[in-house]
């Protein structure tokens, strides 16, 4: 009997759908299909064909936004309003990948600079790198798939996409739209499995030219160490994003933004606001305003359109986050809010001055919790912010230019946002984890660059 995977709602664990899983034979078949598709150069899709497919898929998704938003809320637990934003971003991402092809080109290499290079004309062209294996995460079950699949299609790489086990449905439905838009099934295949050894075999197979991995640092760095010779990769992990609130900050705007950035999707975002460093002159006023805003967040069923904070992806995650909060309180932190709403859903919590040795201070929480620390000098806040082996996005709130620029210069981050929370992102901007937080640069144009290679052609005139 063929094995199946039960996909349940994150909020109440009710069954959504039972789907078949792939076995080792299916993986071999899909890898062989992808390899043979790439090797048939005469069958490569032309740029205008790839553009048309991506744009048609975007249009099909646009006409089906409500269903996809509901699916994201069901399987991933993201509140419906935020899920609708995710669908809109996915539509935009498909179009971005298509439009990027208008600028996706090689360049002329100057010749004649030495006597030996006279009478030659040289230029580069872009070619697809080869078969792409993409392993995705649960927290943006549609848009992350677009980030991995759309660039591969745009540059002409056959791609095998493995969605996260708890959230495969958005991926499967998107791939159906791609095929409906005219993409041959051999160019984009899904791989559904709960078997980590099979997922590892997909990532490390010698036929794979590029691995795109979004998930835990432990797994990502392990897979990178096992890649076949010649395989390139991009890894996107998590962090513990720091935010500095300068004494000149507009507290109302800061509190509102940080409540969104810290509790969006219940904190299950790789650049979610986690560590907030507040100047001692305003700490009392900030805490009053921030805690009030956090306590006002509406918690509950993500399918209800007024819900702002939904469930964590698995019941065991609520248990883990609760244990981390308990450890922080036991070692001296003051707790505001917190508690359990349901088996899978936690009430947002704010921890004031947890120990720097507590898990919440030095590991990624990935839950609806933020930590607030007081500082006197900005150099002190920056030093503590930079003290972890993770670095991704960071931010500062300040109405004065000098501290804003100081933070922008000295914070160890790939992006520093000024007067905005750390979780801001657009899909055409570079998005990169530093240190243990990742490898390579994400964002659709940068991923397209990674999934391609340049070939130089040199023509001798006489």
Keywords:
globular, 2 domains, Aldehyde Dehydrogenase, Chain A, domain 2, 15 helices, seven-stranded mixed beta sheet, six-stranded mixed beta sheet, alpha/beta, 462 residues, Aldehyde Dehydrogenase, Chain A, domain 1
CATH architecture group name of the largest domain: 3-Layer(aba) Sandwich
- Average predicted local confidence, pLDDT: 97
Overall body shape: globular
The number of E-state strands comes to 20
Share of β-strand residues: 15-25%
Uncertain stretches of 5 or more adjacent residues: none
- Tell me the distance between the termini: 68 Å
Tally the helices: what do you get? 15
Write down the CATH topology of the largest domain. Answer: Aldehyde Dehydrogenase, Chain A, domain 1
Major sheet: 7 strands, mixed
What's the alpha carbon Rg, rounded to whole Å?
23 Å
- Give the C-level CATH assignment of the largest domain: Alpha Beta
The total domain count is: 2
Order of the strands making up the biggest sheet: 12-13-14-11-10-16-17
* SSE-based structural type: alpha/beta
CATH-wise, what's the superfamily of the largest domain?
A: Aldehyde Dehydrogenase, Chain A, domain 1
Residues in helix, %: 25-40%
């Amino acid at each position: 009997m063929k094995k199946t995977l039960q996909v349940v709602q994150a909020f109440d664990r009710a069954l959504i759908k039972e789907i078949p899983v792939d076995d080792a034979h299916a993986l071999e078949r899909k890898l062989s299909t992808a390899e043979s598709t790439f090797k048939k150069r005469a069958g490569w899709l032309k740029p205008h064909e790839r553009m048309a497919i991506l744009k048609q898929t975007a249009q099909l998704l646009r006409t089906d936004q409500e269903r996809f938003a509901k699916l994201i809320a069901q399987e991933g637990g993201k509140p419906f309003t935020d899920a609708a934003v995710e669908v809109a971003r996915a539509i935009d991402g498909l179009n971005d990948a298509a439009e990027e092809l208008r600028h996706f080109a090689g360049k002329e290499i100057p010749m004649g600079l030495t006597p030996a290079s006279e009478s030659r004309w040289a230029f580069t062209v872009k070619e697809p790198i080869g078969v792409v294996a993409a392993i995705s995460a649960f927290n943006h079950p549609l848009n992350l798939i677009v980030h991995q699949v759309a660039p591969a299609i745009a540059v002409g790489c056959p791609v095998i996409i493995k969605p996260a086990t708890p959230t495969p449905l958005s991926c499967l439905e998107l791939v159906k739209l791609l095929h409906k838009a005219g993409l041959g099934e051999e160019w984009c295949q899904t791989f559904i499995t709960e078997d980590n050894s099979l997922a590892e075999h997909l990532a490390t197979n010698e036929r794979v030219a590029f691995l795109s991995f979004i998930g835990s640092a432990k797994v990502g760095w392990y897979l990178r160490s096992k890649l076949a010779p010649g395989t390139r990769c991009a890894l996107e992990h998590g962090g513990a994003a720091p935010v500095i609130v300068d004494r000149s900050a507009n507290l109302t705007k800061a509190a509102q933004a940080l409540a969104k950035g810290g509790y969006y999707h219940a904190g299950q975002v790789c650049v979610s606001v986690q560590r907030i460093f507040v100047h001692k002159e305003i700490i009392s006023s900030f805490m009053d305003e921030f805690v009030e805003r956090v306590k006002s967040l509406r918690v509950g069923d993500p399918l209800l359109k007024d819900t702002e904070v939904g469930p964590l992806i698995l019941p065991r995650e609520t248990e883990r986050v609760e244990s981390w909060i308990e450890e922080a309180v036991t070692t001296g932190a003051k707790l505001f809010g917190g508690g359990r709403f349901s088996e899978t859903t936690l009430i947002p919590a704010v921890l004031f001055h947890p120990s720097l040795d507590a898990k919440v201070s030095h590991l990624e929480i990935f839950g609806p919790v933020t930590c607030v620390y007081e500082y006197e000098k900005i150099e002190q806040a920056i030093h503590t912010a930079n003290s972890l082996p993770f670095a991704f996005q960071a931010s500062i709130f300040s109405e004065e230019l000098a501290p804003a620029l100081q933070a922008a210069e000295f914070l160890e981050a790939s992006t520093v946002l000024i007067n905005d929370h750390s979780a801001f992102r657009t899909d055409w901007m570079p998005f990169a984890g530093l240190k243990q937080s990742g490898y390579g640069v994400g964002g659709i144009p940068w991923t397209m660059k990674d999934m391609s290679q340049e070939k130089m052609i040199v023509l001798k005139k006489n």
